Write a sequence for this structure.
């Protein structure tokens, strides 16, 4: 296992200074920084074997296609999916959810049907379902959360009904850090034959994920939040669903035979991959996943758990600081506010100390409404962060308090 | 003082500081000193959209002169709007409409503060000019 200094040396951007001060990057929930191997792989794609996939008869096209399909294999192993045909590449979590919402709506949804989401969802797991409900005359129902930021399971069980067609929940709240009890959620839905989609955007990078063990029907995530490139994402779907669902986009590569009278679709996974895929993104995403496997996902989870414990303890000791979201199980994300100081003021001053946090509603306005606030400061940590950096954040917050006193 | 004379004096004041922290302390002081707005104007009609913090801007028009009062729930944003009020309040609509606000660049506000979504600086300027346009049209 690499030590923290070796790990940090793998991420070139972590060496740079911001306003003359060492960068402290606590905005990993928004996007993660890239290890050298991902950056190098991107250069290699474009200098060594760039050619459009699945089309050419030439060497470069073959090399690209092979690397792309190997990336699919890497993702399959990473998620422990049953088959590589169940791994669809998309543009990201948002693209994946919009795709499923469209196809699922077309195939299965009738007026009066119900979709369940939780109160903790990112807008990306709310709006596509609202759009689908509007189109199909269906109803979106919301699983409530308690004051600690945990969903109320008893209410969820009550909301499940013969009208429920799909449950779509996040693995972890981007705004509060809450980890959802997916096993319970999935078991209850499956008991009445309702499929479950899991938004893994804030979960997949924090430890082991096993979609076979979890038994979820769909699982989606973004490359850029798991140390890979932007513009690439994954949609895992059980073969049964992907076979039954219609494609969400038409175009090249997803077809079997095209005539002006009728088009038949290609087999899985290509049926859902219309047009030229972002194969450089997929190939580099695989490098990022390999990197995480190299560190050991259990090691990553343990490091982040300790960072969360330390940061929670240190931040809680600051007078006038309130943490939002105190669920028993959390990812290493902490949302907070300082008494009488606007989150924007706090974030702006921390930035000038080289500390990158996010402020605002975190694309989760319903969560903010639940607490009657209009935003928080969010520090989202990951394995390359250190306790020293947390100490600097605490010192920075103390300085903010003095400046705005 | 003319709009440009005020802009130059603001630029001079900010140029005393090299460190960003000091510049922000100045903004915070300006924010704290901004005269309190009448609470009845802190309503949706006077709210500027597109900011991470809320900004209320109230214009009044008297004897051909526009005056602004404003408030924000974030102090840095109050400091920014205080600067704009120093420059653009108690002016004729023509002066406001023709103002070239070069001080924003000179004190580094644009590079360091200006993504419209986060502080709404440009939204504030646009709103002030829109009010000037409206009063100008009414006056003619």
């Amino acid at each position: 296992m690499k030590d923290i200094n070796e790990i940090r040396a793998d991420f070139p951007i972590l060496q740079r200074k911001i306003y003359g001060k060492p960068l402290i990057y606590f905005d990993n929930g928004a996007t993660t920084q890239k290890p050298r191997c991902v950056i190098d792989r991107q250069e290699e794609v474009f200098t060594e074997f760039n050619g459009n996939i699945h089309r050419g008869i030439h060497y470069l096209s073959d090399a690209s296609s092979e690397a792309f399909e190997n990336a699919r294999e890497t993702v399959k192993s990473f998620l422990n999916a049953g088959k590589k045909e169940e791994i669809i590449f998309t543009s990201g979590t948002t693209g994946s959810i919009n795709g499923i919402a469209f196809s699922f709506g077309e195939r299965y949804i009738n007026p009066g049907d119900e979709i369940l989401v939780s109160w903790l969802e990112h807008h990306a797991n709310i709006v596509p379902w609202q759009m689908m409900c509007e189109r199909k005359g269906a109803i979106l129902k919301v699983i409530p959360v308690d004051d600690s930021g945990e969903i109320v399971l008893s209410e969820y069980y009550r909301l499940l009904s013969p009208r429920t067609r799909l449950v779509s929940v996040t693995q972890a709240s981007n705004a509060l850090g809450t980890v959802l009890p997916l096993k319970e959620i999935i078991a209850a839905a499956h008991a009445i034959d309702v499929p479950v989609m899991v938004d893994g955007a804030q979960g997949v990078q924090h430890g082991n994920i096993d979609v076979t063990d979890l038994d979820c029907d769909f699982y989606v995530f973004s490359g850029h939040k798991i140390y890979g490139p932007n513009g690439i994402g994954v949609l895992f779907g059980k073969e049964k669903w992907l076979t039954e669902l219609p494609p969400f986009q038409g175009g090249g590569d997803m077809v079997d035979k095209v005539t002006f009278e009728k088009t038949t679709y290609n087999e899985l996974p290509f049926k859902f991959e219309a047009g030229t895929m972002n194969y450089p993104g997929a190939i580099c995403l695989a490098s990022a996943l390999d990197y995480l496997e190299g560190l050991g996902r259990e090691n990553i989870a343990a490091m982040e758990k300790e960072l969360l414990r330390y940061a929670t303890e240190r931040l809680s000791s600051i007078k006038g600081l309130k943490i939002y979201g105190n669920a028993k199980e959390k990812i290493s994300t902490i949302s907070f506010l300082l008494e009488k100081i606007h989150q924007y003021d706090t974030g702006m001053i921390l930035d000038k100390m080289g500390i990158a946090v996010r402020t605002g509603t975190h694309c989760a306005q319903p969560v903010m409404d639940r607490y009657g606030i209009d935003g928080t400061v969010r520090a989202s940590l990951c394995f390359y962060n250190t306790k020293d950096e947390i100490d600097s954040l605490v010192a920075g917050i103390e300085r903010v308090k003095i400046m705005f006193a | 003082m003319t709009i440009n004379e005020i802009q130059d004096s603001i630029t001079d004041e900010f140029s005393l500081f090299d460190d960003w922290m000091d510049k922000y302390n100045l903004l915070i002081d300006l924010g704290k000193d901004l005269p309190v707005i009448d609470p009845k104007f802190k309503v949706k009609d006077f709210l500027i959209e597109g900011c991470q913090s809320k900004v209320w801007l109230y214009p009044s028009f008297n004897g051909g002169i526009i005056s602004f009062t404003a408030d924000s729930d974030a102090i840095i944003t109050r400091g920014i709007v205080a600067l704009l009020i120093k420059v653009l309040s108690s002016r004729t609509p023509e002066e406001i409409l023709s103002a070239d606000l070069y001080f924003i660049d000179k004190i580094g506000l644009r590079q360091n503060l200006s993504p419209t979504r986060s502080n709404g600086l440009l939204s504030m300027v646009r709103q002030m000019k829109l009010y000037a346009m409206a009063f100008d049209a009414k006056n003619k």
The CA atoms of residues 46 and 74 of chain B lie 16 Å apart. Chain B has eight helices and three strands. The mean pLDDT of chain B is 88.
